[in-house]
Write a structure and sequence with these properties.
Elements lengths: L2 E10 L17 E10 L2 E7 L8 E4 L4 E4 L1 E3 L11 H8 L9 H10 L2 H17 L2 E7 L6 H11 L5 E7 L10 H9 L1 H6 L5 E6 L6 H13 L3 E2 L1 E3 L7 H7 L4 E4 L5 H10 L3 E4 L1 H7 L6 H6 L4 E3 L13 H12 L3 H15 L16 E4 L6 H4 L6 E6 L2 E4 L9 E4 L1
Parallel strand pairs: 1-4, 1-5, 6-7, 7-8, 8-9, 9-10, 9-11, 11-12, 12-13, 13-14
Antiparallel strand pairs: 1-2, 2-3, 4-18, 5-15, 15-16, 16-17
The chain binds zinc ion.
The site of zinc ion (ZN) has 5 residues, from loops.
Length: 408
């Protein structure tokens, strides 16, 4: 059954106009006065509303904007416990350090499968209601063979973009024995996790893992069939970005402290996306990454939430777009592109992040006339409706407010 959504004030497509089919996200593009037709879960047609062909069902957008669903390429959702007290203390002046992860590890190990599954489902629903139709999910709070294998298996119940992050931090029982822990991460733990994961990740940072350790983790992951991505240059300058590009990683995430050589390396990489996570800097009251420097150098930039219980407990891509615009000086178009097409590039996905003909029909309708409102009205729940693979998956903002569905 085909669906026509018409009277769209602005349809963001990230795809060239009038293309018969689109193989992957392009640059930011939008059509004013638009319509879109969805059929069999895919985008079948986009163009001017006045030129739209018919369809089995018609939705009147009544002057609202329609965008590709957000692609959140960095999230840590498999955990138990909470760290609200740590956040409050940090806001009162204590610094963030990687060691806080260990408190979540203890709570996660102690939790039942059902608790972890319930937390995960709740966060996934929260994301969907805020327009996120594709998300990545990491392990990294288990840090034993059994607990990491459980984490990737649970993540796989809610997303295909599962990342093995055994190399998140050295757990307390391996304190002072990093090499022994890495043997586990690259050996028995990897073997237990690889069948349920697509990606391998490592936290390359002072207090976590150094360059050679990160290289070893990514190489072992690749040998087990996983694709590399990395936490890099978050808390200070370091080798993470260089390691990422050497390894052909899909993304180097954080990129807050970069040298000129790091920026040049990313720009020349041809395939490593710089994923910026402005919710972290917001939630840790830290300096933001220099998005303009990266964009000016021609680096592909994505925005993601880094949703996790420690450094950034937001699941909201609209908030991250607003922060990128307000505090990282990205244009509204750059920020929306980075949160959709950029995220897709960071996950090496060609079927999402755009609304070209042939793309998966993951789309969001804003209760607003343009994408700019995501930054112009920060903190306001603007996601009026969400479709995933052409099916209405959530419509948090439109019940009882004249959302017109007209069978023809
Ligand atoms: Zn992270």
């Amino acid at each position: 059954m085909s669906l026509l959504i018409t009277n769209i004030s602005e349809l963001v497509t990230n795809a060239p106009r009038d293309a018969v089919s689109v193989a992957s996200p392009g640059s930011f593009e939008a059509i004013a006065g638009a319509a879109i037709i969805v059929d069999a879960g895919l985008v079948a047609w986009t163009g001017l509303a006045a030129e739209a062909p018919g369809a089995d069902e018609v939705v009147d957008a009544a002057g609202r904007a329609v965008l590709p669903g957000f692609v959140d390429s960095h999230a840590h959702l498999v955990f138990a416990g909470e760290r609200g007290g740590e956040f409050a203390a940090r806001m009162a002046g204590l610094p963030y350090s990687a060691g806080g992860i260990r408190s979540t590890v203890a709570a996660t190990r102690a939790a039942s499968d059902d608790v972890l599954r319930s937390n995960l489902a709740r966060l996934a629903e929260e994301m969907l209601a805020q327009g996120t139709t594709t998300f990545e999910c990491k392990s990294g709070y288990g840090l034993t063979v059994t607990d990491e294998a459980r984490a990737v298996a649970l993540a796989g119940e809610v997303t295909p973009e599962v990342t093995y992050l055994g190399a998140h931090v050295v757990p307390p029982e391996f304190s002072g024995r990093t090499a022994a822990y890495l043997d586990l991460v690259c050996g028995e733990m990897l073997a237990a996790c690889a069948p349920s994961a697509k990606w391998v990740d490592v936290f390359c940072e002072d207090g976590a893992f150094g360059a050679d350790e990160a290289r070893a983790v990514l190489a072992a992951g690749e040998a087990a069939g996983l694709q590399p991505r990395i936490h890099a240059n978050q808390l200070g300058p370091g080798p993470g970005v260089q390691v990422a590009v050497e390894a052909g990683a899909a993304a180097a995430d954080h990129c807050t402290f970069l040298s000129d050589a790091d920026v040049d390396t990313l720009a020349a990489s041809g395939g490593t996306v710089a994923t910026l996570l402005p919710g972290v800097e917001f939630s840790t009251r830290s300096p933001y990454p220099d998005a303009r420097r990266l964009l000016g150098a021609g680096v592909t930039v994505a925005i993601a939430t880094d949703c996790n219980p420690g450094s950034c407990f937001t699941s909201s891509m609209p908030l991250c777009v607003a922060l990128a615009v307000r505090d990282m000086r990205m244009t509204t178009a750059e920020a929306v592109w980075a949160a959709t097409a950029g995220g897709a590039r960071a996950l090496r996905r060609t079927d999402v992040g755009h609304l070209g003909v042939g793309a998966r029909a993951d789309l969001i309708m804003l209760d607003a006339p343009s994408h700019a409102y995501l930054a112009y009205r920060p903190g306001v729940p603007l996601i009026a409706a969400v479709w995933r693979s052409g099916e209405r998956a959530a419509w948090p903002g439109l019940s009882g407010r004249g959302f017109l569905t007209v069978p023809v």
